[in-house]
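Protocol step 4 of 6: structure prediction from sequence.
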Amino acid sequence: MEKSVNRVEITGTVGVDPKITTFEDGRQVLRMAVATEEGYKDRSGEWKLETTWHSVVAWSGKEMPDFALIKKGQRVAVQGKIKNKSFEGRDGQTKYYYEVLAFSLKLLDAEESD
């Protein structure tokens, strides 16, 4: 059987101030949206910029910064895995979405993000 790999790396910009939840035992979970941008030329040769939004979840601990330092506009580097999630919508249908479960989260300075 071949080894399977579920690993993702994202370098992008935090879209809104993250939501941080603190539990009684002191652990924290952070949820944030990170935007990545990719440029390309369309068929007519015109330059286009495409933005992709990623839902990122991180738990406090090793390889994580102080979550209070992460704000809208902050550049971040995320390493993690893709997790498939689902919920029941108001219409009774099962809805599916993906999020990135971060193993490592690094805050970037402006010169590191280019």
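Step 5 (inspection) to follow. The mean pLDDT is 92.
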